[in-house]
Give the backbone structure.
Amino acid sequence: MKDIFTQRTLENGINLFIHSTDKFKTNTFCIFIHQNLRKETATRTALLPFVLKRGTKSFTTSRHLSLYLENLYGADMGGDILKRGESQILQFFMETVNQKYVAGEDIIDSSLKAFKELVLNPVEEDGGFKQVYVEQEKDVLRRNIESLYNDKFNYAIERCFQEMCRDEAFSIYKYGHIEDLETINKYNLYEYYLDCLRHCPIDFFVLGDIDADRISDKIGELFNFSRGGEKLVKTSFVRKEINGERIVEEKQDVNQGKLSMGFRTNTRYGDEDYYALMVYNGILGGGPHSKLFQNVREKASLAYYAFSKLEKTKGLMLISCGIEFKNFERAVGIIKEQLEDIKAGKISDYEFDSTVKSLINTLKETADSPSMIISMYLDGIINGVRESTDDMIKKIQDVTIEDVKKVARKIHLDTVFFLNKK
Amino acid sequence: MDVFLGEKLFSNRSKNGLMTYVLPKKDFNKVFAMYSTHYGSIDSEFIVPDTGEHLKVPEGIAHFLEHKMFEMEYGNVFDKFAELGASSNAFTNYTNTTYLFSATSSFEQNLNLLLEFVETPYFTEESVEKEKGIITQELKMYEDEPEWQVLLNLLRCLYHHHPVRIDIGGTVESIQKIDVDTLYKCYNTFYHPSNMVLFVTGCIEPAEVFELVEKHESRKETGTQPPIERIYPEEPDSIKDPASTVRLDVAEPLFLIGFKDGDVGYDGFKLLKKEICTGILMEVLFGKSSVLYERLYEEGLIDDRFSFSYEGQKDYGFCTIGGETRDPERLHKEILESIHRSRERGVAEEDFVRVKKKFLGDFIQGFNSIEFIATSFVSYYHKKIDIFDYMKALNEITFEDVSGRLKTFFDFSKHAVSTVMPK
């Protein structure tokens, strides 16, 4: 395979991935700190980017940081949380404009200085984070968790996964749980962060119009802090026996019913038949050519949106659509027919070919966006797969209808979640 | 031909008046094309050019028409794009309707298909009736989106009559009145080449695009059309209502404050400058580097989802500021007081200089994305603005411009607030 990133390892074990290209107008820097998704630590991990954004030793407030970054032609810098399977990832990112378009100081040097400050030099107060920042950000995080309730579309998806995986770590929300906030203080959070920096696997990505050796030296200089041995972060995958599907209904004062259906695919990224699963998902609900769009929306006029998507690390699939409350049973019926049809190989040439082409199109498009390039590569690292988009395209092209029928037999409906009216 | 950030823009006018623009991006994998008409939800009253008939059409028809354009005699156009491995889509906003595709292969066929389907109306009674079910679900989805509701209610407060106060998709009741005949009348009025623009970007040669478009367009018999007479109701300077509050099933209140712009009635470069100038002003007053933002954040009145924007069109303009908050009343008071103080003290020149740098950087960053380039190009084009003039406009904006705008724009008698409260 052609690897677009060259990999180096800093002395402290941080993996550095560099892709030198002049295709984009910006330079992108990303740091990923991998942690196991656990009830005990999830809320702490989630709170970290919020607290760290509040200030550093040299830029003691968020406002100072913003003033500095705006002067660097509005460099974007921040942090967030990702969830992949049962791993929780603390992400920091920075994007700066290419020096050649603007006058003045060295943008990479100046912005990396702030980036290092953000990640490694938080404001300290007697051996912990700054008290007032931690308390304010606990409140911000609490509101952030609560606000999922305002977003009925994502709420119905998240709730379906929660119900389905209620005995597994995957049910933990990426921003953690409100009840765990009270156990966090400036000392234990700080201690926890130092522990993450020392022991969690860290990947550092650089993509842009840069000299690989020079940037590698620079990052080595700034980020080679001392660390301990790395621990293993695993994205556990549970094969679960399902004894019939479970229906969960929740009532809110809403205007549209939201139907989510959660499935175990028993296949994940890295398995031989994962590419067949991608094709399966595409045929079922991966766009306007799919069975769900054609049958739930176009033929039955039941919904405006109806799609399916894969969680490729945990081995799950989710179907989502917004419907009239009274059409719940009809929609579930039509959806189940589609699943049975694929299982029986009732797949038209049009559905199959369009799916393959659409998957290839999407894969090729990733090369046109810095964040997509990095995200795809990160998924590979998380799942222990090293392959280029060309490798993936080849494997998708090799998938046959028989393969799709075979992978369909491994897919089982686990939970149906319906957000109904009061 | 314009050159900007190392990018070149090529253009061509077809005999029927259609303008085509191409911005090649050789090292990109995909081609992204937009075919757009200057026709949006606010164009609900007009004179039909052929007959001189004065027509007032049901609310939401531009969006309904967009949905129905995907239907051809042979079936659905989505299917054809899918067969070609492309993804296609469309959107309608207040002022324009845009059809698009994105593809990494078969560029010529995709481009031909885009031209073909947008130029071929095919509506049947049966399919129009069926679409009502789908769009009803789309409207219901928006009814449950508090962020959309809070904005809609704000616009209903700011405007007495202007159709910007009406939901782009119309209402469940208004769309029931849509029929085949009216759809054709709207189509024939607004989908004339002289009212449209084609923009193509990505790994494609301008000459190739122009040749294909010429070949395609020369087969069409489209006579010339005089400028379309659009009728907008007389809109007073004042606002309609000072406040709106609704209750939805949300966790925390949502709050939005808006100011109605009295300085309207022009488009082109002057509008571009006003937009950027207002944007800089708002960034200075409410942005993450502002004293106000810092204080509101520390007091727990806002979080980092607090946002603000200015929307400037030829005939209307307004800004919005707000987000989720535990105390809408206090946030309202704090924002007004802060604007009042700024007006007394004025803007600091160093803030202006710094934010201007940020605007330059943000614009350059936008050019990473061909979707951003295409979307901005098209929306500016309909306002008679050349996107390549952005840098020039930004450079020309002075500290005095921004200070002057501060004095005139935030007229307290022309502001309204909209709140969504938990049930």
